[in-house]
């Protein structure tokens, strides 16, 4: 990070000296004035190749996000994080509290993936896929541009006098924002409690679901607050990812960067001025038009180097490319590049640190998927009934009573059958046939009766196969007590 911070400073003596950024630009936030009050941002509407690509990608992501709660894999939700019932589903794989270690490993893998991704591609996630950026820049902000005009017009629009027409527009905007926040809040709730429970909440008597109703109202208000007022501050103040990126970015990380070697020293462009004449006078390609600044949704100047507030949204790349097109210079003064790419012209590459992270990720993935695909859908525990000894029957056979616990980890009822392995005898489940409801633990007693010929001593090793619909699930082992020889 420290190296990247120096992106706007001269690297070699042959480079022209850069125009100095404001000396205190790292001392205060771009969104706060000298007294610490919020400086409201009015970014101009971006346009260009990256913006168009991001728009298409955002629509695709929005479709996935809103359709996600309806998607089922093998009857299980695509994603479910039901904290209240401690039930989780990732890609249709149900995780119960008994699988907590697997869930923890999945989270570890996720974090590791983020680390590698960030070390290689910087904040690509923030600019292209983060729900906050996608919703703010591709849904809420365009509605504002539509109703109140582009950045500079919005600034005027928010000045007095407050006419009836202006107030009506504000009310309309906030009503739309509130409606969209309700939709986003309900989508989040659907990921937490499942689409069926959400539907029940909407159709049932609300008094029966007060806690879920409270969550629904709470989420709506939070999202409305974020998208209508808090905005870029969610990335700057709250998001932990933005904070820990400084520990992950390196000199080879791809970021949105200003090529200070090419751009400095900046200076205004004069009509009909040739590139040759500019170069001869020691002026760089940056014409100091500030188009990259006025489009920035976090209010920063990318020419000051990489900054924590930058969400890599690419708006400044598009803005600067447009300017370069107009003055007949090659595009890419602001572009995706690494610090080494700008300083030394090195191509983007995987460093030893990134390879190390990738190795750990592969190892954790192998462990995770091995555990995931070898875990049993039904977990069985067989214990001898506490304090029980063997009993002799009238026919001279010996019986033992066991306590059996069966956990069904699937989302459908599992009929369970038990069979003695390799021993003559009878096994009886006390009570009705064992059918374990989805996600439930059922406890039952099991009676095993063996003829004396099956015994090998006072403690005979016993194995029981657990099957469901003819499919072998597990084999449990125990001891069978009998008379001493
Ligand atoms: S848009 Fe490009 S030319 Fe204009 S100020 Fe920004 S970097 Fe310089
Ligand atoms: S500096 Fe550029 S990439 Fe970073 S947030 Fe601002 S406009 Fe987006």
Query: Which structural class is indicated by helix and strand composition?
Result: alpha+beta
Report the bound ligands by name, code or SMILES: iron/sulfur cluster
Give me the count of strands.
17
Helix content: 40-55%
Distance between the termini: 77 Å
Which ranges are low-confidence, i.e. pLDDT below 50, for 5 or more consecutive residues? 1-19
SSE blueprint:
Blueprint lengths: L1 H4 L43 H19 L4 E2 L2 E2 L1 E4 L4 E4 L2 E3 L4 H22 L2 H5 L2 H18 L2 H7 L6 H30 L1 H9 L6 H21 L2 H6 L1 H9 L6 E4 L1 H4 L11 H6 L10 H4 L20 H13 L6 E4 L1 H6 L7 H23 L3 E7 L6 E2 L5 E11 L5 E2 L1 E4 L5 E4 L5 E2 L4 E10 L8 E10 L2 E11 L4
Helix pairs in contact: 2-5, 3-17, 5-7, 7-8, 7-9
Explain how this protein is built.
With 485 residues, the protein is an alpha+beta fold. The chain has 2 domains: 1-159 and 232-375, no CATH class; 378-481, Immunoglobulins (Immunoglobulin-like, Sandwich), CATH 2.60.40. The chain contains 17 helices and 17 strands. The strands form 6 sheets. Strands 8, 9, 10, 13 and 15 form a 5-stranded antiparallel beta sheet that branches. A 3-stranded antiparallel beta sheet has the order 3-4-5. The chain has a 3-stranded antiparallel beta sheet with strand order 12-16-17, with no helix packed on it. A hairpin with a 2-residue loop joins strand 1 and strand 2 (76-77). Helix 2 (49-67) crosses helix 5 (131-148) and helix 5 (131-148) runs antiparallel to helix 7. The structure holds iron/sulfur cluster (2 copies).
